[in-house]
Amino acid sequence: MNATPNQQLILASASPRRLELLAQIGIRPNKVTPTDIDERPIKGELPRDLARRLARGKAIAVSDDGFILGSDTVVAVGRKILGKPADAADARRMLKTLSGRKHRVITGVALLTPDKRILTRTAISQVWFKKLDPVDIDRYMARGEWQGKAGAYAIQGYADQFVRKISGSYSNIVGLPLYETSCLLRGAGYSADTL
Fold first, then answer.
1. Secondary structure in 3-state letters for the chain
2. Domain containing 51 — which CATH number?
3. How many folded domains does the chain comprise?
4. Is residue 181 a part of any domain in this protein?
5. Out of 64, 72, 133, 138, which one is annotated catalytic?
6. Does 72 qualify as catalytic in the annotation?
7. Is 46 a domain residue?
8. pTM
9. What is the residue range of 105's domain?
């Protein structure tokens, strides 16, 4: 059954992980429309504010009718933001920064409604990494999983063995907090048979 224009859901992301996470809770967007916005932080911007701003920016950048879901995930050590690594050397620096420490994974979720309201939620999880030795980092880098990942790692892959403990939402660490997302959609009046 096709959704009416006002009931269609558009995902403003190219992330296959976000699609997989939505599918876990029975949501299949009608369209996937990746956006290309500048993801660099503004000078002095806090990690939580950056995640929220980028999620809003992605949702607003899609010109379509319906519910538009934008999301962005940021990794932070204190106030230091670890975005997507520029290259392998940058990824190695990030992994060394995370080694033996606690960090936060912050995801902003924004929903642009058919009547052009913008609703947001933010999820924060904490992750503790074991102390990484050079062999750990070399093996991880050789797999290429660091590419395109905030903080240079994906918890659902090889890096899961580096995680001593987490506090908060696992799906948030993967890239989309499902509890917050489903509450946002339901609260905005998005109706899918599975919600």
1. CCCCHHHCEEECCCCHHHHHHHHHCCCCCCEECCCCCCCCCCCCCCHHHHHHHHHHHHHHHCCCCCEEEEEEEEEEECCEEECCCCCHHHHHHHHHHHCCCEEEEEEEEEEECCCCCEEEEEEEEEEEECCCCHHHHHHHHHHCCCCCCHHHCCCCCHHHHHEEEEECCHHHHHCCCHHHHHHHHHHHCCCCCCC
2. 3.90.950.10
3. 1
4. yes
5. 72
6. yes
7. yes
8. 0.91
9. 5-188
Q: From first to last of its 195 residues, what are the pLDDT tens digits of the chain?
A: 445 556 899 999 988 999 999 999 999 999 999 998 999 999 999 999 999 999 999 999 998 889 999 999 999 999 999 999 999 999 999 999 999 999 999 999 999 999 999 999 999 999 999 999 999 999 999 999 999 999 999 999 999 999 999 999 999 999 999 999 999 999 999 976 544
